[in-house]
């Protein structure tokens, strides 16, 4: 029984990690790419 619980906990953590990975591959990843470009553009523009 305890072994089953630990397996469930591991599967939950892996699913949560996959969700986080998908989320970071989404808008946050674009922000990480876009913010430095915007900063460099603002510096050049000024």
TrEMBL record:
Q: What is the name listed in the Swiss-Prot or TrEMBL entry for this protein?
A: Uncharacterized protein
Positions of transmembrane segments: 27-45
**Could you tell me the superkingdom of the organism this chain comes from?**
Eukaryota
Q: Any idea which UniProt keywords this protein has? A: Membrane, Transmembrane, Transmembrane helix
């Amino acid at each position: 029984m305890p072994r089953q619980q630990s397996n469930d906990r591991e599967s939950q953590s892996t699913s949560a990690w996959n969700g986080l990975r998908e989320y970071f591959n989404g808008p946050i990843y674009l922000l990480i790419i876009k913010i430095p470009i915007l900063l460099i553009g603002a510096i050049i523009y000024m």
